[in-house]
Fold:
Amino acid sequence: MDPVSRVLIEAESRHPSILPWVFLALILHVALAAGVFLINRRHPRMMAAQLPTVSVRLIQQKRPPRRSSRPAAPRPKAVPTPMPAPTAVPTAAPTAVPRVADNPPPSRDAMPTMESRKTPIPTAPPQPASGGGLSHGGLSLGGETGGQAETGVPSDFQFTYYLERMLALIESRWYEPPVPPGTSARARFTIETSGHVRGIVLESSSGNSAYDRAVLRALYAANPLPPLPPAYRKPSLTIHLNFAHRR
Structure:
C-alpha cells in the first residue's frame, strides 16, 4: 500500500460513523407522522373548529349640499366717464431771424473752399533712374570708362526698384574668387520684356581670367531676371554693370 492511501485510511478511521444515527432519526420521523395521521382520522372535529358566521350590510347616507347663509352682493353698474373738454394750445410768437451778410469776409482760420483745392500744387519733376551710384555689394551701375562718365541704364528708365531687385539677384549668384584688392570688371547685357537675358559680353576685363569667368558665370546663373515693368514701353533694356572686389 502506498503512503497516500495509508494516510487516507487512517483519517477515515479516526472519525466515527454517523450512519446509525441517520437511520434512527429517520425511524423517529416516520413514527411521528403516522401518529399524527391516526389521531386526525379518529377525531376530525377536534382539528377543524366551527365558528358562527354573521352577515353585515353597510348603508351609506347621502348628505344634502350646504347652502351659504350670506346673500350674494350685487355687481356695481358701470358709470360712463365724461369726455374732457378740448383746451386751446398756445402758439408761440414768430421770432425774427437775424440777417446774414451775403458775402462775409473770409477769416484766416476758415477752411479752404473747393475752388482753392482745384489748383494743383507745383511739384518737382521725377528724376530719371540713370543708375549712377546705385550699388549692391560689389556690384554697381555706371562709372567711368576711358576717363569718361557713363550711365549703367538708359535715361528714360525710371524704375529704381527693378534695378535694386536685379542687383540683388545677380549678387546672390556671384561667387568671387580670391583676387588682390582693386580688381574690377565691366559687363554688358540686354534684358527683354519677359526678363530673358541675352547678349552677355565682357566690356572691360579685370586682367584675371578666374575673376572674369566668375562675372560671366553670375550673369548666366541669374538668367532669367524678373520681367520688365509694364509701364516701360520699350521691348528691351541694356545694362552696363560693374563688378569690383569686395573688401
Notes: Residues 19-42 form the longest helix (24 residues).
